[in-house]
Amino acid sequence: MTTLSTRALPGGTTHLVRPRALRIAMVAPPYYPVPPQAYGGTEAVVAGLVDRLVSRGHHVTLFAAGPRGTTAQEFVRTSERTLSARLGEAIPEVVNAARVLGLLRSRTVDLVHDHTVAGPLTAPSRAVPTLVTVHGSIAELAELYRPLGPTVRLVAISHAQRASEPGLPWEATVPNGIDVASFPFREHKDDYVLFLGRFHPQKAPHLAIEAARRAGVRIILAGKRTEPVEDEYYRTKVAPLLGRDAVDVGVADGVLKRRLLAGARCLVFPIRWDEPFGLVMVEAMACGTPVVALSHGSAPEVVAHGRTGFVVERPEQLARAIEDCERLEPADCRRQVSEHFSVDAMAAGYERAYRRVLERGRRPGGRLPQARAQG
Amino acid sequence: MTTLSTRALPGGTTHLVRPRALRIAMVAPPYYPVPPQAYGGTEAVVAGLVDRLVSRGHHVTLFAAGPRGTTAQEFVRTSERTLSARLGEAIPEVVNAARVLGLLRSRTVDLVHDHTVAGPLTAPSRAVPTLVTVHGSIAELAELYRPLGPTVRLVAISHAQRASEPGLPWEATVPNGIDVASFPFREHKDDYVLFLGRFHPQKAPHLAIEAARRAGVRIILAGKRTEPVEDEYYRTKVAPLLGRDAVDVGVADGVLKRRLLAGARCLVFPIRWDEPFGLVMVEAMACGTPVVALSHGSAPEVVAHGRTGFVVERPEQLARAIEDCERLEPADCRRQVSEHFSVDAMAAGYERAYRRVLERGRRPGGRLPQARAQG
Question: Which residues form a coiled coil (chains A, B) (predicted)?
């Protein structure tokens, strides 16, 4: 997959050379294994990216917790056990960043690609550049990246995310990618629509039920509810709407998830916040299943409106959009994913970003700055 | 308060000079104002230290959230509002560290004294040394400081804390200090003993009730219970023991706290974990009130056993210790605090630590190292 380029050699000759393989330190959060068994969106992205970078000829050192699960040439375990119970807490996050900082000292890499929250704080102490993928809400995280200035280069996972904070040091926009081959394609659908996701007011499954009911089609709901806010929302807004035509099947594992996605007439995704990237939309389309979404966050750029689904402004428009899915082509949905949201597309996007960052470091006057709190 | 020292001047003459004033960047957590109104132990320590350093002639730049509340010559607000509701979360902690890193860039200081969790991650990017006071549990935080190596110098708040991780780069042990004058001294006590602290199994107020009852003396309990674990513990272990001789008065503000402490025959402190420093023991002694404690964490070094209280090994020994407090001198208790646990003693301890760190930086071969993940 590595592309060839012409490069001037000493003595004035020009020669076809294979771009040199990069040595990449890939830093994963410590909360789930890489790849994860179930929950763990960031860890899934990291796993797919690592494997593709390796197959593209690069040398990857993966820093992650738990068992080894990728083809990275070097695996550096940051913690014996994964720390899912402590996701969101300050101390494990900061301890993990310190560990990686220490473990990096004895290694020679070309750049660090960091997927964690606290890791960027250590970027100013390094001579090599740090690329950070913004997996969380940029509204909160902008205040982390802004003071770090040009010592971190950022990757947005959607144009919407990047557009909401245009002043940050963005290097690229690289949508998350999935392993398309691992999702079954189904041309002929069963007679239901699907909600797949957390039972959370921001995911708004109650709007999905109401829309399906108005469209006269059965809806299956699958997802977790573990946090108090999810429980409360489920009890007051979702449970009263359930019935023979609206069935909650609970948390779906990878197998059930794929079966549900592949069989659905469409995925209903009535998102009510600017989620930086909605991976489930991509997974649905990979199965040949169109997506009916509210227009928030990445939805308008993930769904090709009128071809792989419909993105509407108001909840009242969801029912009609569900009906309109009838006339969409499952093959178009899958193609949209292969072209734009596959791990291959993602790895190619990151490789371009890596080379651009390193190129800037080499240009005269383009040296990556070393920020110092004190000169 | 600044001490004079002799210093060799160019030309060989020796002269009495005032040690030069230090420019100190003091970094507080963003969760409570400095000083705090009620809860906020770290912020209280920072406030006392800042004011004493200023009165000792130093220049302090305080980085803190919320309103200005100290005599620091420069106050840099890291956040309009304090973030108590988010204490313990990763994002506000990491964002605060990034902000301080950015704000420090335009300032010239001799050293950074950091009281936060994430701040130490930024130390390797600075030319000036960073001193970190370990306010939390060293068992968890050791894994943060160890990889940072000599780029941070640590201050323990008790010998017990330091002894549990002797291999870390400790610079000094400086116990937390209180403003002794703000605590009322009472020679003659009322007929009760006191438990003051959270209703938490690790603080074990149920042991205090049982001991007081065996000693035949009334006990007053004051403290918060807001977390689920505290509520559960209170319901099952404390509430059943309450009665006419064991009364819970709820959370005590600064005024009530002082009245309760000053009037008590002793403070019962049946701590069951290695708390790095138990400030309430010091506050009690400042009021002339001895302390009866279980031997965990800092208790044996804060309480002068047999003079300002009793430190016992087993809960069964608490009742006898309560009775024995009768023969202790309230004045001895207060003197113990003035000498060892006052803000003056604390500021003097930190000043010595600052000078030692800077001296090391100046010694040939003693340069403070710049850690880099990549050379």
Answer: none
State whether A120 and A77 are in the same domain.
yes
Does the structure's ipTM exceed the value 0.85?
yes
Same-domain status, A202 and A326: yes
Inter-CA distances, B183 with B90, B179, B325, B347, Å: 36, 7, 20, 19
pLDDT per residue as tens digits for the range A86-144: 999 999 999 999 999 999 999 999 999 999 999 999 999 999 999 999 999 999 999 99
Could you identify the residue written with the tokens 């509210």?
A: A294
> Domain check: are B253 and B332 in the same one?
yes
SS3 A372: coil
Q: Do A269 and A167 fall within a single domain?
A: no
Q: Which residues of A touch B125 (CB under 8 A)?
A: 122, 124-125, 371-373
The domain containing residue A131 runs over which residues? 5-177+342-362
Residues of A with CB under 8 A from a CB of B: 88-91, 93-95, 97-99, 101-105, 108-109, 112, 117-118, 120-122, 124-128, 136, 140-141, 143-149, 371-375
Q: Which residues pair with A7 in a beta bridge?
A: A15
Q: Work out the widest C-alpha separation in chain B, in whole angstroms.
A: 78
Q: Please indicate, yes or no, whether residues B353 and B244 belong to a single structural domain of this protein.
A: no
Q: Which bin fits A263, alpha (ψ -120 to 50), beta or left (φ > 0)?
A: alpha
Residues B170 and B195 in one domain: no
Q: How many domains does the structure of chain B reveal?
A: 2
CA distance A50 to A43: 10
* A354/A282 same-domain check: no
Q: Express each pLDDT in B22-70 by its tens digit.
A: 999 999 999 999 999 877 889 999 999 999 999 999 999 999 999 999 9
Beta carbons of B144 and A95 less than 8 angstroms apart: yes
